[in-house]
Design a protein that fits this description.
Arc Repressor Mutant, subunit A
Length: 211
């Protein structure tokens, strides 16, 4: 059975990840996936059985890439502040790469898709645990220390993730829905240098200065 694979499952997953990032999970069919990846439809069903199961494997693979990026960067030898900076930047890159997909998932959840919500809660939380670990070992400012640690984590992550999620929504629905002045303002918010400044301000508000 080892020769049967020829990495066909990995080929399908790689193609599925690319399609999901461009269209969202519901934006492509199994037939389109197989046509794009040049894989027989029967092989898809052999490896993944259903589109729902395949979608979950795509989400796991995409999310695991971010966790790998985080774990490569953080280290117990670095300060909690520096590790938190690495985590926030990895979250930013992750949301940038997957903004259309994540926007579509958010829309599904807000629309009442309980299965998607349950899957996200169960499988998309490791980065939160890594962030909480750093915050627990950190020297926090008085204002940050007065907040529940979970609230502090959310306060740090949302300003990094939400602009890109909004951009993903515009990508799905059409950027021409906004007037040119609004599009220019959003482009400024999303600019890399402004994202770095936003992360720097968040770190200054949360952490005492390192000595």
């Amino acid at each position: 059975m080892g020769r049967l694979s020829l990495h066909t499952d990995k080929k399908l997953l790689a193609c599925g990840m690319a399609l999901a990032r461009k269209k969202g999970l519901s934006g492509f069919s199994v037939r389109e996936l197989c046509a794009k990846s040049k894989v027989n439809l029967g092989m898809f069903h052999y490896y993944f059985k259903t589109k729902e199961r395949f979608d979950q494997e795509v989400l796991r693979a995409i999310y695991n890439q971010m966790i790998q990026d985080i774990t490569i960067e953080i280290s117990p030898r670095l300060s909690a502040r520096k590790n938190t900076e690495h985590i926030l930047k990895s979250v930013h890159v992750f949301v940038c790469k997957n903004q259309v997909l994540l926007s579509a998932l958010a829309a599904d959840i807000l629309g009442g898709d309980k299965h998607t919500l349950q899957f996200i809660v169960q499988h998309f939380t490791e980065h939160v645990s890594l962030l909480l670990q750093q915050l627990r070992r950190a020297r926090l400012t008085a204002q940050a220390a007065a907040m529940p640690i979970g609230s502090l984590a959310v306060t740090l992550v949302l300003p990094v993730a939400l602009p890109q999620l909004f951009s993903g929504t515009l990508e799905r629905l059409g950027r021409n829905l906004l007037p040119p002045a609004a599009q220019k303002a959003i482009a400024s918010v999303l600019a890399e240098e402004n994202t770095d400044k936003r992360i720097s301000l968040l770190l200054q508000a949360a952490f005492e200065e390192e000595v």
